[in-house]
Automatic annotation (TrEMBL), chain A:
Gene3D superfamilies in alphabetical order: 3.10.20.30, [2Fe-2S]-binding domain
InterPro entries xref list: 2Fe-2S-bd, 2Fe-2S-bd_dom_sf, 2Fe-2S_ferredoxin-like_sf, 2Fe-2S_ferredoxin-type, 2Fe2S_fd_BS, Beta-grasp_dom_sf, Diverse_Oxidoreductases
Species: Hymenobacter perfusus
Methyltransferase found in the keyword field: no
Claim: Transferase is one of the keywords in the record: no
UniProt name for this protein: (2Fe-2S)-binding protein
Domain of life according to the entry: Bacteria
Molecular function via GO: 2 iron, 2 sulfur cluster binding; metal ion binding; oxidoreductase activity
Positions of the 2Fe-2S ferredoxin-type domain: 1-76
Keywords annotated in UniProt: 2Fe-2S, Iron, Iron-sulfur, Metal-binding, Oxidoreductase
Automatic annotation (TrEMBL), chain C:
Native source organism of the sequence: Hymenobacter perfusus
Protein name (database record): Cytochrome c
Classification via InterPro entries: Multihaem_cyt_sf
Region (Disordered): 36-66
Length: 156, 747, 223
């Protein structure tokens, strides 16, 4: 039994400790907002926060997460109203939407660490997340919008 | 629906500890409807509209959503005539029911076009039925009953009621036909940007996609396919794999019985797979590594084609283990041989003989993989009596008959539920993975989700074909264009659309095609053929303009003027005015002739396919020694734009996708095996490679809407090729361009 | 060779500065010795260095052996397993062809990446199984921004000088330099994960060459 804390909830799971966190989230716990895209940390669809860092859960063994703090897209904000999520909706970023939870999780780390990112900062933070629909321009714009609203809300 | 309903909590240590997990399907319509209609039962007025007595109005979207916005924009058409408050309606994916909901096919950029009239009529009919019901109850003439945002009013008697209060009565009335529909000037929903109705679910990670689907007792299946085209399964030893934790079974699974008549969308690359079934995805992945499998060359095989799509016929699938080098040599040989004539105007041979100048160029495009972000997958629960299938699929209406035959079940015992798709691009029109899932479920007698890994997905096949085209143009002594010749070929199909521009604009014209049989499977890919032609032909037109001493936009406009005023030949497959319209619009919006834009390496291209017109001006700069598309101007004519902001998003995405594929897309083969297996060697465009700005402009007109999924994509390749010519000082004829460029060694 | 671990905390940075100061003094002494005692022929052929605590080459034989040893060291350092994390820019390299890391992770101040693109987000404590998966090490990082220790594009002469230049090597003492052959990231080069080529010699051979080079005078091959 492994003890996990995901989205502030405690879980006990009986899985091989070598299992990637991604499959524990999806198959064992039903937290399917975190997506499988490549399995080798190329596409970023599986990005979750492990102690605040945007780890790729497809190559992160669940053992690394034991006793640590995991946040998935489902828990990014209790009411799904994180400034990044709101900006994504405001600009209607998604097309197919499959990669977007990973994009959002990456963007949230960027905005936590840099309240006023330049375009170069945005590219540097987001180059690990692939969007086959090509929504990159809207993602950039949404990150700028989220940064602005975050600053206006006094969180900058 | 809350996460709570999926989790059974246990009161162990500290309260909030979750021990076991059960999934109550997020996709079960009954469960969802209960939540969405808390105040009463749905009353179905017609196939598309359901209303509760307390006036919750639900619109069903008929067509599967893969990111092209149909889930929002098709219901907008119904809402336009139904007269409802868009903010209050509920939109839901409809069931697979072609009788009620039409063709339900996502592909060919056809959704808007196919459903434009039927959906508005459906909305208008429901509104009329509600008005009639109210008029009968109020004993007033129906003409005096008006509607506003889900309410019925009778001004004279000051009576008002909700749609919901008359839903039952309306449902019992006959459905009126031949409704008079609104003129575009009266639209209040259509042509007004509406947000994606599933946006909130997407950003909060709700289980929307096929791969997210789970059921209690569901097993996971994966399949080994042969390591190369032309190979088949010889033997296997699953002893070690079966010892792995959670593994239930390992077995051979044949897809089609011998002689099975395949329709056009029954393409499958391998007829027999080695299936591993287990409890979880990771367990199955681990067990696959323990399989000992022997594969062998399949030799030439026979497929039976027909299945209601063309006459029954036998086709030989060559058994050769193909390699890209040999394919290229083979294409060169074929290109030199006589080919099938597809169109001839005038006397092209004589014109070329008499020409002062002949320009000849050959372009090449590789196989392309779709690489939908959500790999192929499908849920199936098949018993002897019935089949439930849930997952991502573009063409349920074509897959269901195949499934019925393969399972030997009547179609009415098969239920296909369509989930949101993590991309499609044509790939999910081929439902072999659904049929595979169904057969696996029947074999293991359990609900099963078949999941392809990225590697399975990328190497399975059904690619954009490999193409070559040679373009020739004859100029007379005045540098006027007197003849045009295109000869194109492909593995295994040629790319030529013989009646497209510049056919009709040149006196002497010849189009020819040739094809090389192959075992590499191919299929629709975001405007297949067009996406190659628009690169090759639009790049060639650019060279032609240069040779003729003309501005590339002016040359195209001159040719289109000719095609309009004095067209050559028949069946010219484009409207010269609309074609010219997008070129003029993109010229004006991009400031094509403005001196301040001279700093950019600019490339233009325009193309017509799938009933819509698209032109792009690409502005390239050198950045870190690499060509980079900094901004793009796009002009589109797709008639009435249903959902402008979403349409803009689609065009921007197509531009980014086009740039990515032009620079990086391509598959190569060695001895039948695909050499690219995941994103480390099949490169997709990333954020830092995407332009800073893509300005999208739509031609404003009242023409019935046509599609947008495909049309903006093909001309991106041509515009990139033309800009690259200026940026790099030389022209590139081979896609992808990226590997031929000097890449920086440090950043 | 991978870089040595970047300073994690303010405390460790301060400690390093302290160490650096102590052997700066030592170097000054060494310079005097070298200038007076050097063999003219050897000086002609190779450039002896003044590594932190490095004893200068005492004889032409030492000098030759040191330079020869470095040519071995250089082969290892310029192999993709070492070179890829010692780029001339701020983006690491990938693969046996040392192409730019596809998703352009940035060095960052501490060499551990930036924002959502920190090394440890993909590179785990151990190699991820399978081909083309992220190799792993608990310390995975680039040299930090204040000590980039670039290998890419360096000639043997330049690289030898740079390795022992206290201003460029984090002010390492001779002892620290010698010990660096067994640094966890250096060793990681010989456990590169499935499908990656190894450095051109065994770690033992490399360590021997490294030690010889340093102990025989840290001679830089002639430019």
């Amino acid at each position: 039994m492994l003890n996990l804390t995901i989205n502030k909830k405690a879980y006990q799971v009986d899985v091989d400790p070598e299992t990637p966190l991604l499959w524990v989230l999806r198959d064992t716990l039903g937290l399917v907002g975190t997506k499988y895209g490549c399995g080798v940390a190329q596409c970023g669809a599986c990005t979750v926060h492990l102690n605040g860092e945007a780890v790729r859960s497809c190559v992160t063994k669940v053992s690394r997460a034991v006793g640590q703090k995991v946040v998935t897209i489902e828990g990014l904000a209790e009411k799904a109203d994180h400034p990044v999520q709101k900006a994504w909706l405001e600009l209607d970023v998604a097309q197919c939407g499959y990669c977007q939870s990973g994009q959002i999780m990456s963007a949230a780390v960027l905005l936590r660490e840099n309240k006023n990112p330049t375009d170069a900062d945005i590219d540097a933070a987001m180059a690990g997340n692939i969007c086959r629909c090509g929504t990159y321009l809207r993602i950039r714009e949404a990150i700028r919008l989220a940064a602005t609203s975050q600053r206006k809300a006094g969180n900058g | 629906m809350t996460r709570r309903s999926f989790l059974k909590s246990s009161a162990l240590a500290g309260g909030g500890l979750m021990l076991s997990f059960t999934w109550l399907s997020a996709f079960t319509p009954a469960g969802r409807e209960k939540e969405m209609a808390p105040g009463g039962q749905w009353v179905e007025i017609n196939g598309y509209v359901k209303i509760t007595p307390d006036n919750v109005i639900k619109i069903l979207n008929p067509n599967p959503e893969f990111g092209q916005n149909v889930m929002t924009s098709l219901p907008m058409m119904i809402a336009e005539e139904l007269d409802v408050d868009w903010q209050k309606i509920v939109v839901e994916m409809g069931p697979h029911d072609n009788a009620k909901l039409g063709p339900q096919f996502t592909g060919g950029s056809n959704s808007m076009r196919m459903y434009w009239k039927p959906l508005r009529e459906a909305g208008a009919a429901v509104r009329q039925m509600l008005r009639t019901a109210a008029a009968q109850a109020w004993a007033v003439p129906v003409e005096e009953v008006t509607t506003k945002a889900g309410m019925l009013h009778h001004a004279k008697s000051r009576k008002s009621a909700t749609y919901g209060s008359f839903a039952s009565q309306a449902a019992s009335l006959p459905v009126p036909k031949g409704m008079k529909l609104k003129a575009p000037k009266d639209f209040t929903v259509v042509s007004r940007s509406k947000k994606n109705v599933e946006g909130q679910k997407i950003v909060s990670g709700k289980p929307l996609f096929g791969i997210d689907y789970q059921q209690p007792g569901m097993l996971i299946a994966m399949a080994e396919h042969p390591p190369g085209f032309g190979m088949k399964l010889k033997s296997f030893d699953a002893t070690e794999a079966l010892k792995m934790p959670g593994i239930k079974d390992v077995f051979r699974q044949q897809l089609y019985a011998e002689g099975f008549e395949q329709g056009g969308f029954d393409t499958r690359s391998f007829n027999e797979l080695l299936v591993v079934v287990g409890n979880t995805t990771w367990q199955v992945m681990q067990a696959r590594k323990k399989l000992k499998v022997q594969w062998e060359p399949a030799g030439d095989t026979k497929d039976t084609m027909g299945g209601g799509r063309g006459p029954k016929r036998e086709v030989v699938v060559p058994g050769e283990l193909e390699s890209t080098d040999a394919q290229l040599r083979n294409m060169k040989d074929y290109a030199a041989k006589p080919a099938q004539q597809l169109r001839r105007d005038g006397d092209p041979e004589t014109a070329f003989k008499n020409a002062a100048t002949v320009i000849e160029r050959t372009c090449h495009g590789p196989f392309l993989a779709h690489n939908c972000m959500e790999p192929m997958n499908f849920f199936a629960h098949v018993t002897d009596e019935k089949a439930l299938l849930v997952g991502p699929l573009q063409a349920p209406g074509w897959t269901e008959p195949t499934l019925a035959k393969v399972l030997n079940l009547p179609a009415d015992k098969i239920e296909i539920q369509m989930t949101r798709m993590g991309g499609g691009f044509g790939r999910r029109a081929y439902g072999h993975y659904l049929t595979e899932a169904a057969l696996i479920s029947r074999k293991v007698k359990a609900p099963v989700k078949l999941v392809y890994t990225r590697e399975d997905d990328m190497t399975y096949g059904i690619y954009r074909p490999m193409y070559t085209a040679t373009y020739r143009a004859a100029l007379d002594a005045n540098k006027d264009l007197i003849a045009f010749h295109v000869k194109g070929g492909g593995i295994p199909e040629h790319p030529i659309h013989a009646n497209r521009f510049p056919a009709g604009a040149v006196d002497n014209y010849l189009a020819e095609g040739w094809e090389i049989p192959s075992n590499i499977t191919i299929g629709a890919f975001r405007a297949p053929r067009s996406n190659f032609n628009a690169a090759a032909e639009q790049s060639f037109l650019d060279e032609l303009a240069e040779a003729m001493g003309k501005d590339p936009i002016e040359l195209r406009l001159e040719l289109l003027k000719r095609a309009k005023e004095n067209p050559v030949g028949k069946n010219n497959d484009y409207d010269a005015d609309r074609y010219a319209g997008i070129l003029k619009l993109v010229r004006d919006k991009s400031g094509w002739n403005q001196p301040e834009n001279k700093k950019y390496s600019r490339g233009v291209a325009a193309y017509f396919c799938h009933n819509s017109y698209a032109a792009h001006v690409v502005d390239m700069v050198m950045r870190d020694g690499q060509p980079y598309v900094e901004r793009v101007f796009s002009a589109i004519d797709c008639g009435i734009v249903i959902n402008p902001d979403a349409a803009t998003n689609m065009v921007q995405g197509a531009v980014v996708d086009g740039i990515g594929n032009a620079f990086y897309g391509g598959l190569t083969l060695k001895n039948g095996a695909v050499e690219q297996t995941n994103f480390y060697n099949y490169r997709l465009i990333r954020m830092h490679e995407a332009p800073q700005k893509i300005d999208v402009h739509f031609v404003q007109n009242d023409i019935d809407p046509t599609g947008l999924g495909e049309p903006p994509f093909p001309p991106v390749f041509g515009a990139v090729a033309n800009a690259l010519y200026k940026a790099a000082g030389k022209r590139f004829y081979q896609q992808p361009f990226g590997p031929q460029l000097n890449t920086p060694t440090a950043l | 060779m991978k870089s040595h671990p970047a300073p994690n905390t303010r405390t460790s940075s301060l400690l390093k500065i302290g160490t650096g100061l102590s052997f700066l003094i030592f170097i000054t002494t060494a310079v005097t010795t070298v200038s007076s005692g050097e063999n003219a022929t050897a000086a002609d052929r190779e450039t002896p260095l003044r590594a932190g605590g490095a004893r200068p080459a005492r004889t032409a034989q030492d000098s030759t052996e040191s330079a020869q040893a470095f040519s071995k060291v250089y082969k290892v350092l310029m192999s993709p397993r070492c070179l890829n994390c010692h780029p001339s820019g701020n983006v690491p390299l990938q693969g046996d062809d040392s192409h730019l890391h596809t998703m352009l992770p940035q060095r960052g101040v501490d060499g551990k990446g930036v924002y959502a693109m920190k090394c440890g987000n993909c590179h785990q404590a151990t190699n991820t199984p399978g081909r083309h998966t992220p190799p792993g090490n608990p310390e995975w990082h680039l040299p930090p921004a204040n000590m980039k220790m670039v290998f890419q594009g360096r000639t043997p002469n330049q690289l030898a000088k740079q390795l022992v230049d206290p201003k460029q090597n984090g002010r390492k003492s001779m002892k620290e330099l010698l010990a660096h052959a067994d640094d966890t990231l250096v060793l990681a080069g010989w456990h590169p994960g499935e499908g990656r080529t190894l450095p051109p010699m065994s770690h033992a051979e490399f360590k021997k060459a490294w030690t010889t080079w340093l102990e025989k005078g840290a001679v830089a091959p002639k430019p």
